[in-house]
Design goal:
The complex is a heterodimer of chains A (132) and B (857). Chain A has 132 residues and is an all-beta fold. Chain A contains no helices and 11 strands. The relative contact order of chain B is 0.05. The chains are: A mainly beta (132), B alpha/beta (857). Bound molecules: siroheme, flavin-adenine dinucleotide, iron/sulfur cluster and FE2/S2 (inorganic) cluster.
Chain lengths: 132, 857
C-alpha cells in the first residue's frame, strides 16, 4: 500500500502458519498485534485461557488498531470493541454485533476475519490459510 | 385482489415521502398501489437538513425514513422521471421519457422552486440558489475551486435575510468563505421577529463573523474580468466585492403542471385545494408546498406532512380536515438561537406583550398573552430559545404562574410546571401530541426516548421538540412507577454512583472480583473503563497497574490520545499555561526529531500528533529528562486549568491568577472522574480566561476569589453558577476539593458537572449545603479523600518508563517490536504532515513514508 520497503520484515510472505510469541507473553484480556507477511493480526488471550486472533484492521476507521480494543462479552460471546468508534465484534465469528449506526469504510466488510490459533509447546501459532 | 387502485404522486420530495409512508402504514388491505414520479435523480431526502451536507454528511445520510419503503411491492419510485403532462380526461400522466402512467387518483406534490428576483447578472457563474442536493453540491464545488484559484478566502454574499438566508450564510462560513447577508427589509427574519428581536439577532449573527446589510436592494451582479461573479451593486450606489452569491429570496409553488392541466390556481400561485386537500377535480389532490390551502401556500414541512396524512386518510375513507397551519419556526444555525411561534406580532385585539432584553448578551424575548395576561398567544425568542419547545405547545392554554419565569434567564425565577393537555401538539413536524407520547409510554411499552421516537416519530425531523418529548417521557415513566433504567450495561444493573459505593464499601480491587460479586459476564467497553475509573478515583493507583490496563479506554490504555490512523498525540502538561522558554524549545525539538505535527490546543497547550505506539516512551523520556511531564488530554480526568495573565503583568489584574491556576492544576492533576474536568482562573472580572465556561471557574475580586461551578463548553454550553464570593486562597482549595470529590462519588457515567448539578435533588443550593454546611456530615471524609489523592500523585508516564513490564505494552508487534505499522501514510500540508486520505493513498507518489520520519538522533 505504501512505497516503503521493509527489509527487516520478520516473516516470509508465503508463510501461512507462523509462531508469533509464547503463550506466557500474553497478558489476559490485553491484546497484542503481530505482523505476518503483509497481514496484521490482533491476538487476545482471555481470562478463561483461550486465545483468539482476528484481523488488526478496524473496518470502520481503516486503522490497524483492533489489538488495542477492550475485550468483553455480549451474552455468551467473547467480544472485542474497536478503540476508535467502539463497534463491537464477536471474537468467535468476527461478526460485527454493534455497528454504532456507522458503515464500514469503502471497500471493507463490517465483519472481521478470524484466524485459527493453535498452541504448540508454549508457542502461539496463527494460521492465515483459508481465511483471506 | 384484482381491483388495486392506482395512485400516481407527481414530485418526489418530503411530502411525497410522507404520503407514501403513511399509505403503506395504514392501507393494510393493499387497496392502493403508489407510483412516485420524481424529477430529482434520487429518492426523497430530508430537505430540512440540507445544510448538514456542508458539515460532512453525505447525501445518503439525508435519506428519509426506512429505505425498505421503496422495495414494497405496492410502491414504485421512478427517479429522474419528471412529469410533463397530465391528461385529466384519460387519467394519465406522461413523464419526460414518454412513459404514460394511468391513475385512479393523482396527487400533486411538486413543492416549490427557489425564486430569485430579476437582478442583472444573476446568470453569471458563481450565482446559486439553495433548494436541492444538487444546488448545495454545486455551491460547494464552486467555493472549493475558487478558493484554490484565488489563493485566499472566498468572499460570499447571501441575498435574503430570512430563515433560509441565515442558514445559507452559516453554510458559506462552514465552507471557509466569508459571508455577508444582504437584506431588503429593515431587519433580519422580518417575517418571524419584530424590531427588538431583529436587533438582537443582528448582533448574534455579527458575532459569528457574518456581516449584515439591511435596507439594501441589490441592483446588479457584476462580473470580474474573467466573467465570474465579481461584485454586487446596490440601489444606494454602494458596492461590494464578492466571489459567490446565493439567492435566498423565497420560494414559489411549482404549479405549472397543474396550471396546464386546467386546475384552479391561487391568486399568488399554488394549486387550490379544500380542507381535505382535494382540488376542483375529485380525482386530484395536492399536498405540500404546491398546495394553496386556506388561501395560501405554506413553506414549512409540518403543514405539508399534515396534508399528506389527510390525503391518505381521505382515500381510505377517513374524515380528517386541515386544522390550519402552525407556522412556528426555529432557526437551525449553530450558536444563533431564534424562534417565533403563534401570534408573534400581537395582532389579536387586546393582546399584551411582555418583553425581556439583555442587549449585552444579545438576548431578546417576548411573550404575547391575552389581556388578562393568562393565556399564551405567541412569542419571539432570540439569543436563548431554550423555552421554545415547552412554550409552543402551550399556545392557546393558560401559562400557569408568573410569565416572567419564561422570560428571565433560566434559573432566575422558577418556571411554572404546567402539565400539557393531551391534545397539545408537541412535535409539529410530525404532528404528534402530548397524549400520543404519553400513550406510547403507558400503553405501548416504550421506556426510552429512542423507542418513543421510533414509535411516534416525534423529534425525528428538526429535533427542536426533543427536550420537551424527553421531559414528557420522564414524567410519564415516573407516574407509572417505572424508573428510567440507570443500569450501566448488560453486565451491571447499578448506576455508576451505586457501583462507586459498592466498590468503596466492599474494598474489592480487581475487575474480576467486582464483576463476579456485583455483575454478570466478563464486562465490556462500557463497564470496564467505568470500573477502571472508579478504582483510580478511590485508590489513585497507576492506570496500567496489574490487571488495570485491560480496563482502560482507548486513550488511557496508552496514556496518549489515539488519532484516526491509530497513531497518538502527546500534549505535555503546561500547568496554568505558564511555560519556560527552554520548555517551549524542547517541545519544538521533540516534534522536529520525531516528525510530529504540532498545533496549539484550545486549552493553552501544545499538541504533537502522529507518534506511533512504540515511540511514546522515547518522547516521554525526553520530557521527563527536562523536568516536564506528559499531560492528560485524555481520560476522564483533570485536563487543564486555563489562566489569564493576572495581576503580575496586567494593569487591571487584582490577584495572581497564574499562580492560582498552577496551584489548582498541580493539586488536581491525575484526578479520575465521571467525565473530564476543566478549570479556569481569571485575574479580574473581565474574565479573559473564560473561567465561567469551565467545570470550576475562579475569578479574582478585590477581596479574594469568586468561585463558579458547573460550566462547560462543548455540545451544550453552560455558564458556571456562583458558589461563593470573596473567599481567600485556602477556602478556594477546600471548597473545590469538596465539590469535585462529591461530584466524583455521585455523578453518573459520562455526566459532566453541569447536568449533575442540575439533576442533583435541590440543585446547587443542596450541593452548597453538603459542601459548606456539611448537611450530610461527609465533609471530613471528602477532605481526607482529596488529601489522599494529592499525596499519592505520581507522574504516570515516568512510572511506565521505570517498569519493564508495562513498557512491553508499548511495542508495535509482538513478533517485531520496533517495526512501524506498515499501513501508515502521510502527505505534506502547510509544511507539516497529516494522514493521507484514501484517494491520496492510491496516488502513491505524494506519500511521505513513515520510515522517513524515524528519530534522527
Ligand atoms: C486537542 C483539542 C483540540 C485542539 O487542537 O485544540 C481537543 C481534542 C479533542 N477533544 Fe476537545 N479538545 C480540546 C479542547 C476542548 C475545549 C476547549 C477548552 O478546553 O477550553 C472544549 C470545550 C470546553 C469543554 O470541554 O467544556 C472541548 C470539548 C470537547 C468535547 C465536548 C464536551 C462536552 O461536555 O460536551 C468532547 C467530547 C467528549 O468529551 O465527550 C471533546 C473531545 C475531544 C477528543 C478527545 C475527541 C476524541 O475522542 O478524539 C479530541 C482529542 C484529540 C487529541 O487526540 O488530542 N472535546 N475540547 C483541545 C485540547 C485542549 C488541551 O490542551 O487539553
Ligand atoms: C435549506 C432548507 C431548509 C429548510 N428548513 C426548514 C425548517 O427548518 N422547517 C421547515 O418546516 N421547513 C424547512 N424547509 C422547507 C421544507 O424543506 C419544505 O417545506 C418541504 O421540503 C416541502 O415538501 P414538498 O414535498 O412539498 O416539496 P419538495 O420537498 O420541494 O419536493 C418537491 C419535489 O417535487 C419535484 N418536482 C417538481 N415538479 C415535478 C414534476 N413535474 N415531476 C416530477 N417531480 C417534480 C421536485 O424536484 C422536488 O424534488 C427548508 C427548506 C430548505 C431548502
Ligand atoms: S472540535 Fe474537538 S473533537 Fe471535534 S474535531 Fe475539533 S478537536 Fe476533534
Ligand atoms: S418539531 Fe420538528 S422534529 Fe419535532
Amino acid at each position: 500500500m505504501t512505497t516503503v520497503s521493509h527489509e527487516t520484515r520478520p516473516a516470509a510472505a508465503s508463510a501461512t502458519r507462523m509462531a508469533v510469541c509464547t503463550y506466557d507473553r500474553l497478558t489476559p484480556d490485553l491484546g497484542v498485534a503481530a505482523l505476518i507477511g503483509d497481514t496484521q493480526v490482533a491476538i487476545f488471550r482471555l481470562a478463561d485461557g483461550t486465545v483468539h486472533a482476528v484481523q488488526n484492521l478496524d473496518p470502520f476507521s481503516g486503522a490497524h488498531v483492533m489489538s488495542r480494543g477492550i475485550t468483553g462479552t455480549r451474552g455468551d460471546a467473547p467480544t472485542i470493541a474497536s478503540p476508535i468508534y467502539k463497534q463491537v465484534f464477536s471474537l468467535l465469528t468476527g461478526e460485527c454485533l454493534v455497528t454504532m449506526d456507522k458503515k464500514p469504510q469503502a471497500g471493507h466488510a463490517a465483519d472481521l476475519v478470524v484466524y485459527p490459533v493453535t498452541l504448540d509447546n508454549g508457542q502461539v501459532i496463527i494460521d492465515l490459510v483459508g481465511t483471506a | 385482489m384484482t381491483d388495486i387502485q392506482q395512485i400516481v404522486v407527481v414530485g418526489g420530495g418530503m411530502v411525497a415521502h410522507r404520503f407514501t409512508e403513511a399509505m403503506r402504514a395504514r392501507d393494510t388491505d393493499g387497496r392502493y398501489a403508489v407510483t412516485v414520479l420524481a424529477e430529482e435523480p434520487r429518492a426523497p431526502y430530508d430537505r430540512v437538513a440540507l445544510t448538514s451536507y456542508f458539515t460532512g454528511k453525505d447525501p445518503d445520510d439525508l435519506a428519509l425514513g426506512d429505505p425498505a419503503l421503496w422495495d414494497d411491492d405496492l410502491v414504485t419510485l421512478k427517479r429522474d422521471a419528471k412529469a410533463v403532462q397530465i391528461d385529466r380526461e384519460g387519467r394519465t400522466v406522461t413523464d419526460a421519457h414518454g412513459v404514460v402512467h394511468p391513475y385512479d387518483h393523482l396527487v400533486m406534490a411538486t413543492g416549490s422552486y427557489a425564486w430569485s428576483p430579476p437582478v442583472k447578472g444573476s446568470d453569471l457563474p458563481g450565482v446559486f440558489v439553495y433548494r436541492t442536493i444538487d444546488d448545495v453540491a454545486a455551491l460547494r464545488i464552486y467555493v472549493e475551486r475558487r478558493r484554490k484559484e484565488l489563493g485566499r478566502a472566498v468572499r460570499g454574499a447571501v441575498i435574503g435575510g430570512g430563515l433560509l438566508g441565515l442558514e445559507a450564510a452559516g453554510a458559506l462560513q462552514e465552507l471557509g468563505a466569508t459571508s455577508t447577508v444582504i437584506q431588503f427589509a429593515d431587519r433580519l427574519m422580518n417575517l418571524q421577529v419584530d424590531e427588538g428581536g431583529g436587533q438582537a439577532l443582528t448582533r448574534l449573527i455579527e458575532n459569528m463573523g457574518v456581516k449584515v446589510r439591511c435596507n439594501t436592494a441589490t441592483e446588479a451582479i457584476r462580473p470580474d474580468k474573467h466573467g465570474h461573479v465579481g461584485s454586487l451593486k446596490f440601489a444606494d450606489n454602494g458596492e461590494q466585492l464578492v466571489d459567490v452569491v446565493v439567492f435566498a429570496t423565497g420560494v414559489r409553488p411549482r404549479d405549472e403542471l397543474g396550471r396546464d392541466a386546467g386546475l384552479t390556481i391561487g391568486e399568488r400561485g399554488g394549486i387550490v385545494v379544500d380542507d381535505t386537500c382535494l382540488t376542483d377535480d375529485p380525482a386530484v389532490s395536492a399536498i405540500g408546498e404546491v398546495a394553496c390551502i386556506q388561501g395560501a401556500c405554506i413553506g414549512l414541512i409540518a403543514p405539508g406532512n399534515t396534508m399528506a396524512e389527510i390525503a391518505v386518510d381521505r382515500l381510505l375513507g377517513g374524515e380528517s380536515t386541515f386544522p390550519g397551519a402552525d407556522t412556528a419556526a426555529k432557526l437551525k444555525l449553530l450558536g444563533v438561537d431564534v424562534a417565533s411561534f403563534g401570534d408573534a406580532f400581537a395582532t389579536t385585539p387586546g393582546a399584551l406583550e411582555l418583553t425581556y432584553a439583555d442587549p449585552v448578551a444579545g438576548v431578546y424575548k417576548k411573550l404575547v398573552v391575552t389581556d388578562d395576561a393568562r393565556t399564551l398567544l405567541g412569542g419571539i425568542l432570540v439569543g436563548d430559545a431554550s423555552a421554545y419547545a415547552s412554550l409552543r405547545p402551550l399556545v392557546g392554554s393558560e401559562l400557569g404562574g408568573d410569565p416572567a419565569g419564561w422570560l428571565l434567564p433560566e434559573g432566575t425565577v422558577e418556571r411554572p410546571n404546567v402539565e400539557l393537555p393531551d391534545e397539545a401538539g408537541v412535535c409539529s413536524c410530525n404532528n404528534v401530541t402530548a397524549g400520543a407520547i404519553r400513550h406510547a409510554v403507558s400503553e405501548q411499552g416504550c421506556h426510552e426516548l429512542g423507542e418513543v421516537k421510533a414509535c411516534t416519530k416525534a423529534g425525528t425531523s428538526c429535533g427542536s421538540c426533543l427536550p420537551l418529548v424527553k421531559k414528557i417521557v420522564g414524567t410519564e415513566l415516573e407516574k407509572s412507577g417505572i424508573e428510567l433504567s440507570n443500569a450501566l450495561c448488560e453486565h451491571f444493573d447499578m448506576s455508576r454512583a451505586q457501583l462507586f459505593n459498592a466498590i468503596q464499601v466492599s474494598e474489592l480491587r480487581t475487575f474480576s472480583e467486582i464483576v463476579e460479586r456485583f455483575g454478570t459476564g466478563r464486562g465490556c467497553d462500557i463497564c470496564k473503563p467505568t470500573v477502571g475509573s472508579i478504582l483510580a478515583s478511590i485508590y489513585n493507583e497507576h492506570v496500567l497497574a496489574a490487571d488495570r490496563a485491560a480496563l482502560q479506554d482507548t486513550n488511557d490504555r496508552v496514556m496518549a490520545n489515539m488519532q484516526k490512523d491509530g497513531t497518538y498525540s502527546v500534549v505535555p502538561r503546561v500547568p496554568g499555561g505558564e511555560i519556560l522558554p527552554e520548555h517551549l524549545i524542547l517541545i519544538g525539538q521533540i516534534a522536529q526529531d520525531y516528525g510530529l505535527y504540532t498545533k496549539i490546543t484550545g486549552g493553552q497547550r501544545i499538541d504533537m500528533f502522529g507518534a506511533r505506539l512504540e515511540q511514546l516512551p522515547g518522547i516521554w523520556q525526553r520530557l521527563v529528562d527536562a523536568g516536564m511531564e506528559s499531560g492528560h488530554a485524555y481520560g476522564k480526568s483533570l485536563r487543564t486549568v486555563k489562566s489569564c495573565v493576572g495581576s503580575t503583568w496586567c494593569r487591571y489584574g487584582v490577584q495572581d491568577s497564574v499562580g492560582m491556576a498552577i496551584a489548582l492544576e498541580l493539586r488536581y492533576r491525575g484526578l479520575r472522574s465521571p467525565h473530564k474536568l476543566k478549570l479556569g482562573v481569571s485575574g479580574c472580572a473581565r474574565e479573559c480566561a473564560e473561567a465561567r465556561g469551565k467545570d470550576v471557574g475562579v475569578i479574582a475580586t478585590d477581596k479574594g476569589w469568586n468561585i463558579y461551578v458547573g460550566g462547560n463548553g462543548g455540545f451544550t454550553p453552560k455558564h458556571a453558577q456562583l458558589l461563593v464570593e470573596d473567599v481567600p486562597d485556602d477556602m478556594v482549595f477546600t471548597l473545590i476539593d469538596r465539590y469535585l470529590m462529591y461530584y466524583i462519588r455521585t455523578a453518573d457515567r459520562l455526566q459532566r458537572t453541569a447536568p449533575w448539578q442540575e439533576d442533583h435533588e435541590g440543585g446547587l443550593e443542596a450541593i452548597k449545603a453538603v459542601i459548606m454546611d456539611d448537611s450530610l456530615g461527609i465533609c471530613a471524609d471528602l477532605d481526607a479523600h482529596m488529601a489522599r489523592h494529592i499525596d499519592s500523585y505520581e507522574d504516570e508516564w515516568k512510572a511506565v518508563l521505570n517498569d519493564p513490564e508495562r513498557l512491553q505494552q508499548f511495542t508495535s508487534f509482538v513478533n517485531a517490536p520496533e517495526e512501524p505499522d506498515p499501513s501508515l501514510a502521510y502527505v505534506e500540508q502547510r509544511g507539516q504532515r497529516r494522514p493521507a486520505t484514501d484517494a491520496e493513498r492510491r496516488d502513491t507518489a505524494v506519500l511521505i513514508a513513515p520510515t522517513r520520519l524515524e528519530v534522527r538522533s
